[in-house]
Design brief:
The structure is a single chain. The chain is mainly alpha-helical and 117 residues long. The longest helix is centred in the last third of the chain and has 36 residues. It is built from four helices and no strands. Helix 1 packs across helix 2, helix 2 runs antiparallel to helix 3 and helix 3 packs across helix 4.
Length: 117
């Protein structure tokens, strides 16, 4: 962080990214009947559990550990195991799709920016 030209902007972007993840988690709650009645606060709990699971070293970009943690989080709120796994799979797939689409586009912008500066 000491080498950053604009550390405040870095922090703002980081917070923005995390907020997007949290909102995506909540919006995905609305995609299934089993999770549609859950609250934003409950999505924060499930998000935290899924985030902790993602730091556990596992092959497949957290597949398995993430799904298990999210399912367990949803069990706390009365969602069945099957619906919990379905929800975790939807959210994980949405994240991976986002990475695969936005990642290359972002790389192009970074490379173009380096050529300009």
């Amino acid at each position: 962080m000491k080498q950053l030209k604009k550390p405040t902007l870095f922090i703002v972007y980081s917070i923005g990214i995390w907020l997007c993840y949290i909102v995506m988690m909540y919006v995905c709650f609305l995609s299934l009947d089993a999770t549609a009645s859950l609250t934003f606060a409950q999505s924060l709990t499930v998000f935290a559990m899924g985030s902790i699971a993602m730091i556990i070293p596992a092959p497949g970009a957290g597949a398995g550990t993430y799904h298990f943690a999210v399912m367990q989080g949803l069990l706390l709120f009365g969602v069945s195991q099957a619906d919990g796994i379905a929800y975790a799979t939807i959210v994980h797939a949405a994240h991976m799709l986002l990475f695969f689409v936005i990642g290359p586009i972002s790389s192009i912008f970074v490379l173009r920016n380096k050529k300009i500066h």
